Each structure stands twice: as structure tokens, then as C-alpha cells.
Description:
The complex is a heterodimer. Helix content of chain A is 43%, strand content 7%. Chain A is mainly α. In chain B, strand 6 and strand 7 form a beta hairpin. In chain B, helix 2 packs across helix 5 (157-169), helix 3 (114-130) packs across helix 4 (138-146) and helix 4 (138-146) crosses helix 5.
Amino acid sequence: MKKFLSNHPLLMVVALLVSPQLWANDDAVKRGEYIAKLGDCSACHTAPEGQAYAGGLKFATPFGELYSTNITSHKDKGIGDYSLQDFKDALREGKGKHGRLYPAMPFTSYALVSDQDISDLYAYFMQVPAADVDNKDNDLNFPANFRFGLIFWSWLNHDPQPFKPIANKPEAYNRGAYIVNGLGHCGECHTTRTKTFGIDKDRIFMGQVIDGKYAPNITATELNRQGWTYRSLNDLFREGYSSKGTTFGGMFTLISHSMQHLTESDMKAVASYLLDQAELDVDAKTPQAKVSIDETSPGYELYEAHCAGCHGGQGQGVPNVAPAMVGNATLDQNHPFNTVAVLLKGIEPQRYSYVRAFGEMPGYETRLTDAQLLTLVNFLRESFTEQSEPVTQQQLDDIRDQIPDNAAH
Amino acid sequence: MSTFSFTLNGEQIGPLELDSDTAMIEVLHEYLNMTGTKFGCGIGVCRACTVIVDNDDGTSEVMRSCINNVGAFNGKKVRTVEGHATTKASGEVQLSPVQQAYIEGYAFQCGWCTSGMVNAATVLIEQLRREPIKKNQIESRIEEALEHHICRCTGYKKYYESLKKLIEETEELWT
Lengths: 409, 175
């Protein structure tokens, strides 16, 4: 009888209306929804075409294949039976209810997430519609297929510490530091890994190769050298496209699911931290970029024939069609990885928002010889950047070796 | 200004004095009066402007003439939609098998995408002639060849079905 009553839809509505506790919970759910976006939980826990948060996305790791899990409120198949404490342990310490979690789940960064944010996230996930989807079996190599071994990984690499605001920096700056280092888990991609695949604490944000793309150096020194400003970062993070070029690879996914949803004040906070501007200069203009094209060079001949149709004869780009080469941050990275990777494999058409989409950047792997590719890359670097070291055949081969065949995104 | 030469449907073109920032399609239309190749989006998305380049090793490939400037075709052997049909001694025009199949299948209406659709299908057939495939791969290979070509009239089904019928009826293309 009791069961019948509580399941009656009308009575449930009444219960919702009269319960103040549930109303309070509503705010937590809303906040939790935003935090889930900051943490980009859906990018990893939702498979293509799959139900939201039902897991099943495949990760190719150095140890084999791993699948993300169902984190909907399903009691047996999801995390519906997690207590707040269980949830905290999973997020911050990588302790799942069924054993240690593989570090593909970025708990090393989430360790910084505050109690308040975790409990809001918890409120949100406890009401995510249950997905009746079983977790997939992982296909990992010995010894990584023993979860027990992960305790040793944790000892070596994981030292959960709460977020400590940096003294004498304003609140907004510290909010930025909290997002970038914690929920934003930027360091999972942008920081070099050690031999045990932990984050190298001495090389925070100094760049590494991930899934066939280079997540570049995003230290304040480097971003300022490249002439990033609040406006260009805001454009990049909101639209995936700024005066300094477009995004691709994991960064495109992160922006689509997560960063474009930042509130204005959080966006400013993130920029303030990334640019190391305690007082963010919101009106700063992108500095004049270098253009020094030698129109008689063989590089220019190749550029005119193959690239100028989209990127413009002077590298000026075509707004909303192809990014400018002038001032382009990808070209201006010290490491030529992404320039070479994009030239070899191209970029598949990407939709950045309802109103903004880019067609494909073609791949030139089969159309241009290695010698031509090198001439072109070095021409781009000489014409539009301060990077004076020529890229060598050896570097080209090394980069090619690190790119999977299907890397056109 | 630079000089460029290439062959077009077997005929030697050039040397032409051109601004090297000239799109290939502009060269076809404005300098050579070859207007069968259609200009669509201009940014390499719709594929209407697709032409064929014949490589020295006997293979052929598609290239878009709007996003590639004339320099990308310098010294190459280019074929456009005008190059497929032949004229018999009697003066009767003989369409290529792909063209004939598209007409019979009522594959196109306004004809804007047809130059690209004919060239992409022709390259596919030439590939299959060199390397026949399994019968069960026909559909996926057609999808691969035509999937990016945009058509706003008859839709894609009639192109797809006409080409599928042609390949199925040409037995040397599959095993």
C-alpha cells in the first residue's frame, strides 16, 4: 500500500511542492549541473550516440583499452548507490567503490575540488536519469589489468591536497587557478607525464603530445609571448575561433562540452590566471603580428598553389572560412608538432556553434612530398612567427610516428 | 605573374601568364572557356568543382578546383566533365558509362553538382578497374566517394543507386 502511494504521480507532485528540502536541493542540482560542465564529465562519460553519462567511451591508454563507466543514478549499473563520501573518494582520491580507478579519470586534478562543489555535483548526479547500461570490460595488459597495482601508482603520483589560494592574489585570480588546475583538468593534457604516467610537477602546463596532437605550452610566459589577450582567449574558449586561429583535437571537444559554458566572471577568472594578470586587462588588443613573406621563395610558390585559396595570398585568412596564418598561435609554437600534424592529416569539418562552422582543412600527406612539406612548414614559420629554427626531416618523421592514422579531428 | 602549363582533357594548355593567386576554376572558366565545371561554395565543401588529375603511375584522383590555385595543377594532366564523352565519326555523341548511368537513373535535375558527381564516380570506377573489390564493399566505396558531394535537387539516392547499378553491371570491377 505504501509503495503504491509514493509511486502515485500526483502524490509525488504534491510531495515535491511541499518539501522545502527538495527546493533547497534544486539549487544544488543547478550548481552541480554547471560544475559538471566545468569538469567536462560528459565528454568522457557519454559515448557517441549513447545516453548521457551512461559511460562506454573507449580510451586507448599505453596499457590497453579502457572504458569510462556509467555514472547515472542507476542503483546497480551506475553510481546511484554511492554515498556522498564514496563520491568524494572517487573524485578526489581515485577510489571507486569497486577498486582503484585508472588515472584516465582525472582525479589527480579533481583532488582540488571543494567540498561544496563536490556535494553540489553529487546532488546533480543523484538525479541524472538512470541508464540501464552495463559497464564494458576493459582490455588492459598485465600488469595494468590488476586494479591493485593502481595503489602503487597512487602512492607515486597522487597526493590529494585541497586547493590553496595564492596569498596576495585577488579572488578572481584564485578562482581562475582553482578552475584551471582543478575542475578544468587542463594539466591532464597540457602537462608532461612522467615515466609512471603521472603528471610531472616540474613541468606544469609546458606541453605534451596527446592523441596525435600537441597540447601546447600554456604557461603565462608563453601565452603572453604569443600575444594572447582576454579577448582572444574569450573568443577561443567560447567559439573555438579567435584572431589567433582555431582549435582542434581534444581542445575542440573540451570547448564544445565544457569551456564555452563558463559564466562571464569565471571566464575572466580563468583568463586572469592564465595570463597572470592580477588585474585583468579586458580591453587589451592583440599585438601586431609579424608578416615577412618572401614572395620569391619556393615556400611561397607552394603556399600560393595549395593554401592561399583558403588562407589568403598574404596569410590573412578568410573570416569564418579559414583562420589567418598571420598571428596564428599554432604556427608560433616552438614545437612544430601541430603545424605538421594538421598539414599531414588535415582537420575534419567542425561545428563550433549554431552559427559558426568550419569546412575541412585538407590533409596533404599524399599530395605533397616530405621535401615540399618541410619547405612549406619552414616558410610559414619564417613568414609569420619568431621561430627561427628550421624543422628537420628527423622531426617530421618523429611527429609522423606519433600520429594515429585517423587523426583528422 | 608566373607561367603555368598542364594538359586539359588530353590537350596541351599554356604556357599561360597568370597571377599565381588564381583559382583553377577561374582559369577554366575565364581563360579557357570551359564552363562545365561548376563553382559552388568556393571553400572546398560542396565538391561541385571537383576535377580529375591523372598521375604518371596510371592512377587518377579528384581535386577541388576552387580551393586549389593554378599552381597546384602545374605540369599535371587534368580532366574535367567536358572530357568524358566522345564523338563518333558519324557525329553522334557517346556519353561515358557514368554519364549514361546518371541520365538513365534521373540522378540530377539542375545539374550544378553533376560535374563533381561525374568526376568522383569516374575516379572510383577507375580505381575499381585497377583494384577490383568484393561485392559487399560496393556500397561503402560509393559512400566514401560521394559522401561529401552536396546535391540540393534530387537528393543523393538517385546518384547512389545509378552508380551502384552501373558498378554491379560492370563485372570486372568486383569479384
